[in-house]
Write a structure and sequence with these properties.
With 344 residues, the chain is of the alpha/beta class. 17% of the residues lie in helices and 32% in strands. It is elongated, with a radius of gyration of 21 Å.
Length: 344
């Protein structure tokens, strides 16, 4: 069996991190987000076809031609025309049954095994307490009968996780698609039409599915999936952490990070080469590659893009997003989206 992995999108909701890298390469517990899915697929499929687009060269550089002894093939979606178009771009490499999976969410391996073993077409659903931003699965007698896309209702429901098992007949339905209201060819629309003619089982997830919609979802996944109860943080190679610093709360530090005396890093993700100055505090935040925090700076619930600088004594309020290479002035208090040099 083969698997089609959708990894072409720009993902604006994970800005500023995805201004400089594709979402599937964002780090989750020391490896790219997509690596978790590829390793799980290796147990059930013999090849993954990665449909790439935005910063495609970075995806290829991250994974090469194989992952976990699992063959990878790349197909470039030159124009972002939707998920159905992405799947259709792999048509010539597919026959019979195959899996389709989003390349930027986390799927527990058991969910992928269950879907691969499903007898016939299937979609993986997961219960959520608030379904407003997801596709709600309409189910009758265990079979799919429709998908209500992003209904906006904040009610509990079984929603689409973006993991499917289909066969080559799906391409007949993709050919008939018209663009959606947002101008894209939607795979879910093709699946609805397919389900009107062929049974599509709705398989409820028995283990973890974590949608990574925003940068803070990535941090939440890190905390949820923490692998070692006894460890308070995970550090990459060549990290320099002062004996007088406090690093913990299930934080992850990339390689080459430098944490100064009396600094605090709690429940955060630091990518490679981050510098945290003396007395600075980072809580519930993500700092991109090469970010530099001055002494006594405070970053609380923020996301900071690659190469940005936060001046001495500055404070980033919760929900702040700092664009790559932006500079936050010393002593300032900043909030919101910060895209350039921020004065006091």
């Amino acid at each position: 069996m083969k698997a089609v992995v959708l990894a072409a999108g720009k993902s604006t909701r994970t800005h500023p991190l995805t201004l400089t890298r594709p979402k599937p390469t964002l780090p989750l517990l020391g490896k790219p987000l997509l690596a978790h899915t590829l390793e799980a697929l290796a147990a059930v499929a013999d090849e993954a076809i990665l449909v790439v687009g935005y910063r495609a060269e970075m995806v290829r550089a991250a994974f090469g031609e194989s992952c976990a002894n699992f063959k990878l093939k790349y197909i470039r979606q030159t124009e972002q025309r939707g998920t159905a178009d992405a799947v259709a771009s792999a048509r010539d490499a597919l026959a019979g049954e195959f899996l389709v999976v989003n390349g930027d969410d986390y799927y527990d391996p058991e969910n992928i095994k269950t879907m691969a073993a499903a007898p016939g077409a299937a979609v993986l659903g997961a219960p959520v307490p608030s379904a407003g931003d997801f596709g709600v699965l309409k189910v009758e007698d265990g079979l799919l009968c429709g998908i209500d896309e992003k209904p906006g209702r904040e009610t509990a429901a079984l929603v689409n996780t973006g993991l499917y098992k289909v066969d080559e007949k799906i391409f007949d339905y993709i050919k008939r698609l018209e663009p959606s209201a947002r101008g894209e060819l939607e795979f879910t629309a093709a699946l609805e039409s397919y389900a009107a003619d062929h049974p599509v089982a709705v398989v409820e997830a028995a283990s973890v599915w974590l949608p990574v919609v925003t940068a803070h979802d990535l941090l939440a996944a890190q905390l949820r999936l923490w692998p070692r109860r006894e460890a308070t943080f995970l550090g990459g190679g060549d990290c320099r952490i002062s004996s007088a610093a406090a690093v913990g709360g299930r934080s992850v530090l990339g390689s080459g990070c430098d944490v100064g005396a009396n600094a605090v890093v709690e429940a955060s993700l630091l990518l490679d080469g981050v510098t945290v100055g003396e007395g600075a505090a980072v809580t519930g935040s993500i700092l991109g590659e090469g970010v530099a925090l001055g002494a006594d700076a405070v970053v609380d619930g923020a996301v900071v893009g690659d190469g940005a600088r936060v001046g001495e004594g500055a404070r980033l309020e919760p929900g702040s997003r700092v664009w790559p290479k932006a500079e936050i002035a010393p002593g300032s208090i900043a909030s919101g989206d910060l895209k350039g040099n921020e004065k006091e």
